[in-house]
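hey so i finaly got around to running the thing on Cytosol aminopeptidase from Lysobacter dokdonensis DS-58. pasting the sequence first so u can double check i didnt mess up the copy paste, my clipboard has been acting weird all day
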Amino acid sequence: MTDSNGFAPRGTQGLPLYCVERTGFDAWRQLQLPELGSWIDAHSFSGMSGSVLLLPGKDGIAGAVLGIGDPLDPFSYAHAPFALPPGDWALASDLDGDALRALQLGWGLGSYKFTRYKTPLRAPARLVAEPDAETLDVLAASLRVRDLVNTPAEDMGPDQLEQACCELAEASGGRIEVISGDDLLKHNFPAIHAVGRASHRAPRLIALHWGQEDAPKLTLVGKGVCFDTGGLDIKPADGMRNMKKDMGGAAHAIALAGLVMARKLPVRLTLYVAAVENAIGPMSYRPGDVVHTRLGVTVEIDNTDAEGRVVLCDALARAAEDKPALLMDFATLTGAARIALGPDLPALYANDESAAADWIEAASAQRDPVWRMPMWRPYLRYLVSNVADLANSGPSRMAGSITAALYLERFVPATQAWTHLDVYAWNDTDRPGKPAGGEAQGLRAAWAMLKHRFG
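ok and heres what it spat out for the 3d tokens, dont ask me to read them lol
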């Protein structure tokens, strides 16, 4: 890692850093010299999670105490890089292997600033550490999501998403295929074309292939709506403000594919990214239009702002043709998921109990939460169309995240193991380790789950 990611090489002289849980604080406090204990007491420091206390020395700062919560949660440590003064810090507490990896990952996440357009006011404090290769790869994948989502649509359109996939393929020996513009119609991807045709930037389906032919098949699909105006059902200004993030699902799928390849997971990987801009123009698809799909299912467009499921249905239909052992999609699909679960909890849907259980177990172990939601099929009544096989939305505001998942399920064979993660991919406000802007959610859990299933 570079210095900007918050790490100093092993052997660097650093000030001592103590990590203390509140439950163990009193015992730690009793071990300190009387004058240092008086300093701690004078600051009413108690080891509360998210706190920092600098320790005095003859020549200035002699060290620091970091109050942490769950020692296995990376974000227990993520406040440190900017709560501590710039400089090098060496861990002075005994942490087991899992807690040490959490510290290192949290330090890397907490050191992040999006620097493409603005120079940070200060550098993060550096931790003297050499994280193992997997920790560095997981950190890089998480920061890749942030960088991709934070980049504005002017510099992160369908072309740039394609370039990001090409760079991954080149680095890992993968192979790229791209179908764009009117060629989408020739190759039977009419729904992707319908959503993206109004933009001056051609819609496309990007495919990345990697791995041995005889390995189990893993297929990832990402929603890559690089900007979402809402189409002719235009969003209000406040709803459109952050719609550069509507390719957050693609960012997750791309980052996870990169992690699979970097760690050489023994799978035959295929990544599909449906990359479009939902623009407004003479070629915009309209409310009331009937769109054909790759699967042959006709879809009445009730709302042009429910475009993510329209592009995903073609990509999922294509992905299912590969008959993978597991099919996973990621999408910033619904505001309804945020109403139900808030910004921090991605909504997990699955038609396979084993995959759902593995993901939930991994989420708990990695402190990277997801929340399983029901595939309540009676709610398909909210997507009934009088003129087509299915509507992409409906007049009811009930169960919006569930109905979106049910819509997607219509394009996945019943025998195909499939998971869908409805992510927010965003932090609305600055929190320690979670700066306002793009965020990876469920990514570490997804990797742990895949490593368990295929590793």
